[in-house]
Specification:
- By secondary structure, the chain is α+β, with helices and mostly antiparallel strands.
- It folds into two domains: 117 residues, MutM-like, N-terminal (N-terminal domain of MutM-like DNA repair proteins); 123 residues, Helicase, Ruva Protein, domain 3 (Orthogonal Bundle), CATH 1.10.8.50.
- Helix content is 22%, strand content 22%.
- It contains six helices and eleven strands.
- The strands form three sheets. It has a five-stranded mixed β-sheet, with helices on one face. A four-stranded antiparallel β-sheet has the order 1-7-8-6, covered by helices on one side.
Length: 286
C-alpha cells in the first residue's frame, strides 16, 4: 500500500492542481529520503515549472522544466498532498515545496520512511538508492505481452506481485483480480490456458479501473492528494475477508500465505488445480 490505483489517483489530482504551475521555496526536513541528483532541492526546484504529473508503477512522477523528474515512491505510509501553506504541519512531513501563485504547497509525509524522493536529471551525478526497473503496465498490457509474462515458471500470485514483471500490483489488487478471474493464487503461471490468461488480464484491468474510480482503497494510512480516504475497500470481495462469505457463492473466504504475504481467496470460486490441460486449450476446471 499504496498500489497502482492509489498512485494513479494522486497523480491525476496533482496533474490537475500542479500542471503549468511554478515551484517556489523548499523545506526539506530529512536529506536521507532524497536520492539521485546530489544538488540540494532548495537550489534545484525554485523557479521550475511543472510540465505534467503522471504515474509509473506505484510511483508518482512530476516532470519539470528545465528538464528534470521528481519521483515520489510512497512505500507503505507515504502521503503526497497539496494543502494551504498555513495548514498545520503533521509529524513525519519530510518535504514541502510552495506552489507559486496558489497559496498552497506540496507536502510529502512518510512515517515509516519506506518511500522516498528521486531526482533524475540527465548528465548529473547520482547518489543514494537506485529505482528498480519495473515491468509491463497492466492497464496498457496487450494479450501477447501478458502471455509473455505468464510463461515464467512461478506461482501466479508471486509473479503478479513481482514489480519487475508487472508494474503496480500489490497484495490487494492481486487477490481481488485472481478472485474475479476464478484462479487460485498458487496456480503455476505457465500452466494457464490462453482462455484463462485472457480472463485474468481482463479481470486485472477491470479491477484496477473500478478501484481508480473509487480513488483507491484505504485500510490504514492511505489518503489521496486532497487528504481524503478511498472507498474501494467497501467493494473488496476477498481481501481481508477471512471467514466471511464469498460475495459470489457464499463459501467462507480463506487465508493462506503466498509470495510471503497473507493471501485471501474463495476455495470454491478459485479451485486449485496442479496443471491446466495445455497452454492452447480451454479448461473447465477452476
Amino acid at each position: 500500500m499504496p498500489e497502482l490505483p492509489e498512485a494513479e489517483t494522486i497523480a491525476r489530482q496533482l496533474q490537475r492542481d500542479l500542471a503549468g504551475r511554478t515551484l517556489g521555496a523548499v523545506h526539506l526536513a530529512r536529506t536521507d529520503i532524497v536520492h539521485g541528483d546530489p544538488t540540494p532541492l532548495g537550489e534545484l526546484l525554485p523557479g521550475r515549472k511543472v510540465v505534467r504529473v503522471y504515474r509509473r508503477a506505484k510511483q508518482v512522477v512530476i516532470e519539470l522544466a528545465p528538464p528534470m523528474q521528481l519521483i515520489f515512491r510512497l512505500g507503505m505510509t507515504g502521503r503526497l498532498t497539496v494543502v494551504p501553506v498555513e495548514a498545520e504541519i503533521e509529524t513525519h512531513t519530510h518535504f514541502r515545496v510552495v506552489v507559486a501563485g496558489t497559496g498552497g504547497e506540496l507536502r510529502f509525509r512518510d512515517p515509516r520512511r519506506f518511500g522516498g524522493i528521486w531526482v533524475i536529471r540527465e548528465g548529473s551525478d547520482y547518489v543514494g538508492r537506485r529505482l528498480a526497473e519495473v515491468g509491463i503496465e497492466p492497464l496498457e498490457a496487450t494479450t501477447r505481452q501478458f502471455r509473455g509474462v505468464l510463461s515464467r515458471r512461478r506461482q501466479i500470485k508471486a509473479l503478479l506481485m513481482d514489480q519487475s514483471a508487472v508494474a503496480g500490483l500489490g497484495n490487494i489488487y492481486c487477490d481481488e483480480s485472481l478472485h474475479a478471474a476464478g484462479i487460485h493464487p498458487l496456480t503455476q503461471a505457465d500452466t494457464l490456458t490462453a482462455e484463462r490468461a485472457l480472463r485474468l488480464l481482463r479481470s486485472i484491468k477491470s479491477t484496477l479501473r473500478r478501484a481508480i474510480r473509487c480513488k483507491g482503497s484505504t485500510l490504514m494510512d492511505y489518503r489521496d492528494a486532497e487528504g481524503r480516504e478511498g472507498s474501494f475497500q467497501r467493494l473488496h470481495r476477498v481481501y481481508q475477508r477471512e471467514g466471511m462469505p464469498c460475495k459470489t457463492c457464499k463459501t467462507s473466504i480463506r487465508r493462506i500465505t503466498a509470495a510471503g504475504r497473507s493471501t485471501f481467496f474463495c476455495p470454491k470460486c478459485q479451485r486449485h488445480v496442479t496443471r491446466e490441460r495445455s497452454r492452447g486449450s480451454s479448461s473447465r476446471s477452476g
